[in-house]
Structures are given as structure tokens and as C-alpha cells.
Design brief:
about 350 residues; alpha/beta; nine-stranded mixed β-sheet; 9 helices; globular; binds zinc ion
């Protein structure tokens, strides 16, 4: 079953007057092919894997409106158009009961989201791009960063088109960037918060550099000065543990985190940084596994006299202050304060 709509070099007059009209014109998952000045090579842009992350498709709309021609061919995949159009606009990460599309890029492809992911992989294989950028927004406000499954000068060069911060992580979750290992250099770029004007601006500026540059992969050794965060560990809640966010400890919850915990995003915390309040042994409340599959909870957090602190100097990121995201996903990711993996 072919569900993608294929469009080649749309004119600025054909794409609607705003991003909502553009999405309605697409009507569903779409593949837009742009002929480049040099038609012998192709790059790929994937965006809107998550329907509530608008920066990438807004940037693409603005590029098409400007009527510019990219340096090389670009194949643009705009995926979760249906979820994005579900009212109110850009509020649904995916449609109800659908799997997270960015967890579906590995077999089995046997449900609707799996089939969509498989078709995206087929489009990429067909065009054999020299590079793939998958553009996302974070749910809360925060700085931009790139993610890739392993580092080499190609991945460094690709990320540095957009941002100076790179997380190297291979959790094997079925994310699109995991195809990097056996196909084309692929990076995830998180341009910042889904509601932040700065994120929309970075998406457009970065897209213009990515589409406009003759070379996006490094040809020789260059130090891009990236801030590296390697093999982060996720701090998760154990089942049936209750969590809230407040300025003072709430006795009816197992864990109370300070509402401003988000302010530590990408900053350093020390064993004296109060994160919140909790009681009971750390391992009863939390779970965390390192790359070797060992429990890392007591390397991340420590409870002293009912107060919750980092167990050592750490750098925390993708911190949420939303209890339902903390339950469904994780509280935060952590690396050692020098960006290396947390060790014993
Ligand atoms: Zn996303």
C-alpha cells in the first residue's frame, strides 16, 4: 500500500499561504523532491515524525515559499501530517493508540506506524542520500542539540550545521538515526522547544545551510568544537512510585521534585544541588541501567535525610517537569560532568 504523496519541485504559489494550508495540501505523509544545482547527489530531510513538533515543516514551507534551489537534490519526508492536522494544530505527537513513529524503524513493521516507517526507509534507499537529517523539537523549552548513535567526522560535521552540542547514544529504541550504522550518515537534530520562536528560527537557518552548502560532510579532520555528551543514562521511575513537582515536600507522594529542576538542563549539578525530596532506598523508587546493563541508580541519585541529591557531579539533560512524561519516559538523562559516561 502506497500512502505517501510524491511531489517534485512545487512552486511557491502551489503550497498554500501558511503552514496549515501547506499541510492540508499535502493531505497525509508526503515526499517532496527538490532538484539541486548539482543533480548527481541527494541529501535527505526528514521531519514531523512527531506531529506536535512544527519547526522542521515550518522551515521547509519557508524555504519553498522563497523559491530557492538547493545546492544538490534534496528529498524531504514530511511524515505525521495527519497527527499534526488533528485539532488543535500541532498538538498531537501521534494519533491516539498509534505507536511513537520514531520507535518504529526496525522490524516488525506490521502495524500502520510500522508500515509508514518502512516506507520512509524505502524512500531513503531509493534516493541513496549522502546524509540524512531528522529534525525534531523538544517538548519543553531548552537549548538545541544533536543526537547520533556513534561519532565520526561526518556526524560531527552534520550536527555542527545546526548546533554545537552532540549527544552520542545508542539505546536501540528503533529511532531513525539508528540506520546510520549500516547506511547513510544520519543525525537527529532537536532545534529547541516546540513553541519557541528561537527554535523555529534555528530550524530555518540550519535548513538553509544544509540545503545550500556544496559540502555538508567533512572532507578532512576538523575540530568543530562540539560539546559531547556520551552514553547518557536514563533515570526512570519504578512502577507504582508516585511523583509530583512542588516547592516543598508533599507527604502523599513518594517523590517531590522542585518545579525549577528544568533549569539544570545541560548545566552541571553537584552532590549539594537539591533536586527534591524522597524517602526510602533509592533503588525502590528509581531504575537506571548503564551501557553494560548494570544498575546505575546509586551513581545518579542519593537520598540524605529525606532530601534528594545527585550522587556525584553530573550533567543532566532532557529533564522534564511533567509527571506524566516522567512516568511514561524518564525523569532525565545524565552523564558525568565532563560529558563522559557515568562510571562507578
Ligand atoms: Zn520528536
Amino acid at each position: 500500500m502506497r500512502r505517501f504523496k510524491f511531489i517534485r519541485d512545487p512552486l511557491a504559489t502551489e503550497i498554500g499561504n501558511n503552514v496549515e494550508e501547506f499541510l492540508r495540501m499535502l493531505g497525509g505523509p508526503a515526499c517532496i523532491f527538490l532538484d539541486g544545482e548539482d543533480t548527481s547527489r541527494t541529501r535527505a530531510l526528514v521531519t514531523l515524525l512527531h506531529g506536535n513538533e512544527p519547526s522542521g515543516v515550518m522551515a521547509l514551507f519557508n524555504w519553498l515559499k522563497a523559491g530557492r534551489r538547493p545546492a544538490v537534490n534534496v528529498v524531504c519526508v514530511v511524515a505525521s501530517v495527519d497527527a499534526a492536522l488533528e485539532s488543535p494544530l500541532f498538538s498531537h505527537r501521534m494519533l491516539p493508540r498509534a505507536r511513537d513513529l520514531n520507535r518504529c524503524f526496525r522490524p516488525p513493521f506490521d502495524d500502520a506506524q510500522g508500515a509508514l516507517a518502512e516506507e520512509i526507509l524505502e524512500i531513503l534507499h531509493l534516493h541513496h542520500p549522502e546524509a540524512v537529517v531528522d529534525m525534531h523539537n523538544t517538548s519543553g523549552s531548552g537549548p538545541s542539540f544533536g543526537v547520533c548513535t556513534y561519532m565520526d567526522r561526518h556526524h560531527d560535521a552534520l550536527v555542527s550545521i545546526f548546533t554545537q552540542r552532540l549527544i552520542v547514544s545508542n539505546l536501540g529504541l528503533g529511532a531513525l538515526m539508528e540506520i546510520s550504522e549500516h547506511s547513510y550518515p544520519t543525525v537527529t537534530v532537536e532545534v529547541g522547544g516546540r513553541e519557541d520562536e528561537e527554535a523555529h528560527a534555528l530550524a530555518y537557518e540550519g535548513l538553509c545551510r544544509y540545503f545550500g552548502a556544496r559540502e555538508v560532510l567533512d572532507q578532512e579532520e576538523t575540530d568543530w568544537g562540539l560539546e559531547l555528551l556520551r552514553d547518557p543514562i536514563r533515570l526512570e521511575l519504578n512502577d507504582n512510585v508516585t511523583l509530583t513537582y512542588a516547592e516543598q515536600p508533599c507527604a502523599s507522594y513518594d517523590i517531590t521534585l522542585k518545579p525549577d529542576i528544568e533549569h539544570h538542563n545541560f548545566g552541571g549539578v553537584t552532590p549539594d544541588t537539591l533536586l527534591g525530596w524522597a524517602s526510602g532506598p533509592e533503588r525502590r523508587l528509581f531504575r537506571a541501567l548503564d551501557m553494560g546493563g548494570r544498575c546505575a541508580v546509586t551513581r545518579l541519585v542519593r537520598i540524605r535525610d529525606g532530601q534528594l541529591y545527585p550522587a556525584q557531579a553530573l550533567k543532566l539533560f532532557m529533564i522534564t517537569n511533567n509527571a506524566s512524561i516522567a512516568h511514561a519516559d524518564c525523569l532525565f538523562y545524565a552523564v558525568a560532568d565532563d560529558g563522559a559516561a557515568v562510571c562507578d
